[in-house]
Structure formats: C-alpha cells, structure tokens
Backbone:
C-alpha cells in the first residue's frame, strides 16, 4: 500500500499535464512512458489505477482512451493573454506617449490602449486588482515594481525584482528594451514571440529545438489540430510548448468564412475580397503566385464545419517569420541539391544558413526579403570570422526594387567584407566551386 501511495501523486501529476494538451486519455503504454516506466510494466500501472478508480480516476470498460480524472486541476481559462504580450503593448504605448507633445496625447496611443485592456482583463480573470485609469497606471509604472502590480508578472523569465516602467519621469531602459518599433503594433507584438523563443533557446543552448520551432512556423503556418497536439507533446518541443501556444491560434477564431482557402505558396488562409474571390493576405506573395509560380497546385479547401480542427500562426508571425522564411528554406534546398552540406539557423540563428563547400570553404548567409536597401540595416549583419565568405542574399524577385547592380560596390565598401548577392548569384558561385573552378 505504501508503494501505491508513493506513486499516486506522480500518476495524478502526469495525467494533469497530459490533459492540458489532449482531450482523450492516454493508453496504458503511453502512461508508462509518462511515468518513465517500461511499457511491459503496464500491468503494474493498471493495478495502481485500480486502487485510484472511483476516487481520482475513472474509465469505461472496453473503451479506447477513456481514462479520465475525476478531480482534475482547475481548468485554465480559455482566454489566454500572455503577460509578455501585455508588457510589450504597455512598453510600446508608454514610449509613444512620452514622444508626443501634451496636446497630441488624446486619444491615447493604440498600443497603450490595447495594453491597458489586456491588463484589466487579465486582472479580472485572476481575481486581482489593476490600475483603474491612466493616472493610476503612471503612478504604479513609476513608483512600484512591476512584480507588484502587473498581473502574471511572475511568469516573465529573468525579470528583475525592482524594475519599473518609468524612472525619473521618463520611460526606463527596461521599457525601451520591451517596446516594438514600426507600423502595425499588433503584428509587431505577435512577432515578438519569435524573439522570446530565440532568447530562451540561446540561454539554454537549444539549437535543434529552435530550428524545429522556426521551421514549423515557416512550413506549417496552417496545420491540423491533431498535428499541433503532437508537436506540443513531442520531447523536442517540450521546452517551447508555451511559445507554441502563443504562436498559433484556432482557425475558427482567426476568421469566419464558409470555406477557407489557403495560399498555394505560403499555405496561409487567404482573405476574401469584396467580390467574393480569394487571394493571399500578402500582396507580394499573391503576385508571386500569379506571375512567377502560376502552376502551383491548389491546396484542399477547409469547410467551415472543420475549422475547429485547424490551427494557424498569428498574422504577425506569418508576416515576419513565415514569408521571409520561405526564401531561407528555398535557398537551403537549392544549395543542398548541389550536394553541399547546408545548416539552417546555425549558432541559434546568428545567421540563416551555414554552407560547407568542397575544399573546406565555409559561407555564412543571411537572407533578407527587403524592398529597399539601407546602410544601417545592412550593417547589422557582421562578417563571420569563422567563415570564408559572409553574404547578405536577396530574392531575385526583388531585383528591380533593390537595383543591386547599381549600389553594390558603394555599399559593400562600408560592410567590412560582407558581400551582397542575389540568390541566383550565390547559386552560381556554389555551382562554380562544385564544378572545380576557383570561384570562392
């Protein structure tokens, strides 16, 4: 009996974790694995379950996966508002508020409005208090540690205990580090999940987990719910499960159509135009589909009745990770077909590609899907001293916008050895090396 009592808490714990990601119960073999036991010990697990039946667990005779908890942990509220996103909205809004002259501070910045709304809702769901108005928000932001007034702040990794959003009447350095730049604050905040994943993986040196996570966002922006569940329970993704939940949402909550059509190139749900036709949500991607790749086969449509069985990445993840990532994966595949070793996101995304060519030649490549060149952005890519060449590579489809042949020499002179190439030019260089030429 002592042995059974010893294992009861462990069984309850693994079942509670299981039901966070699954609607049906585990099989005995799966439960053995969760308990770090050999599947051949399922008779022992069955004996333990019998002692718990009717008290902690129950199941239906001869029914597959019917094991269930009778006293489950309180269910997580379906409305999930990641505190990191709330903090980014607040930080962005406060920074924008500070830049405005007093007469232009009404209405309040969109990011601040969204952040305060999320703040109130999170506090309401948790039964806690939140700042009731702007003066109270500013008072807390300057005088009180974030941990003492931001609901769920304890979930933020590496948060200093005494940090505030405002110091001496100005936004703090901490606030500056959390705000997002550019247009479309919502999409910018959504994309910041990828930044959080990068920071987490670099801290814990999770290179393969990071690579798999990013590839999932690029190659599986829309996927069946069951596949999403399998990702959540896969050992490789275990350290990143919460980030996966933040990166994806239910298709039925994303948009409401009678039928969902996916872009044949990026695989993301298309938008419905006013005339009833459909097209990719990204104009350039749609152009590539119709002009450059008109032969791409259509993907099977998803009827409204099945929308609850599908997940999609957030719009910000699609815009800033999926779409540029398609070029990264395309170049990776093209170089690999030439017979060379190519690694995606080496050194946990220090660069996009590491290419190892004959003769111990190594290239580092960063792929940029830009519509214009700017020297300060180009300078953010540094020459890699562990490689023979470092390239910033652009899709050929952007050739007319970039005018690379006109400005290349001028910009490369300022980049400390970093070369600017189109994808076709890099492939030509690689083919020359494979062919035995001295074109490195």
Residues:
């Amino acid at each position: 009996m002592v042995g059974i009592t010893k294992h009861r808490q462990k069984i309850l714990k693994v079942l509670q974790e299981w039901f966070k990601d699954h609607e049906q119960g585990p099989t005995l073999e799966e439960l053995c694995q969760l308990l770090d036991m050999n599947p051949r010990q399922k008779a022992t697990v069955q004996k333990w379950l019998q002692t718990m039946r009717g008290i902690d667990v129950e199941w239906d005779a001869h029914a597959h996966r019917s094991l269930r908890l009778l006293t489950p942990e309180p269910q997580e509220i379906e409305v999930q508002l990641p505190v990191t996103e709330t903090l980014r909205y607040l930080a962005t809004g406060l920074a924008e508020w500070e830049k405005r002259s007093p007469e232009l501070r009404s209405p309040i910045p969109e990011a601040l409005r969204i952040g305060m709304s999320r703040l109130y809702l999170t506090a309401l769901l948790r039964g806690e208090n939140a700042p009731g108005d702007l003066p109270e928000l500013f008072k807390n932001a300057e005088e009180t540690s974030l941990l003492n007034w931001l609901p769920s702040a304890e979930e933020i990794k590496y948060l200093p205990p005494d940090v505030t959003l405002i110091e001496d009447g100005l936004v703090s350095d901490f606030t500056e580090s959390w705000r997002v730049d550019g247009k479309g604050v919502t999409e910018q905040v959504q994309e910041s999940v990828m930044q959080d994943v990068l920071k987490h993986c670099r801290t814990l040196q999770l290179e393969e987990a990071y690579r798999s996570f990013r590839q999932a966002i690029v190659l599986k922006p829309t996927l069946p719910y069951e596949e999403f569940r399998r990702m959540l329970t896969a050992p490789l993704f275990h350290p990143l499960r919460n980030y996966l939940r933040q990166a994806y949402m239910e298709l039925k909550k994303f948009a409401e159509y009678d039928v969902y059509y996916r872009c044949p190139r990026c695989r993301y749900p298309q938008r419905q135009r006013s005339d009833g036709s459909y097209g990719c949500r990204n104009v350039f991607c749609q152009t590539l589909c119709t002009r450059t790749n008109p032969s791409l086969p259509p993907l099977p449509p998803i009827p409204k009745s099945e929308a609850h069985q599908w997940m999609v990445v957030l719009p910000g993840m699609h815009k800033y990770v999926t779409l540029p990532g398609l070029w990264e994966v395309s170049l990776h595949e093209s170089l690999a077909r030439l017979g060379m070793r190519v690694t995606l996101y080496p050194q946990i995304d220090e660069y996009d590609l590491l290419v190892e060519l004959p003769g111990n030649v190594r290239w580092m490549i960063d792929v940029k899907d830009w519509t214009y060149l700017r020297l300060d952005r180009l300078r953010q890519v540094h020459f890699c001293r562990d490689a023979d060449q470092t390239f910033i590579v652009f899709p050929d489809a952007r050739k007319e916008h970039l005018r690379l042949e006109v400005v290349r020499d001028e910009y490369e002179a300022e980049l400390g050895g970093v070369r600017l190439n189109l994808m076709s030019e890099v492939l030509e260089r690689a083919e020359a090396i494979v062919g035995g030429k001295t074109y490195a």
Notes: The first strand starts at residue 57 and ends at 58. Confidence is low (pLDDT under 50) at residues 74-78.
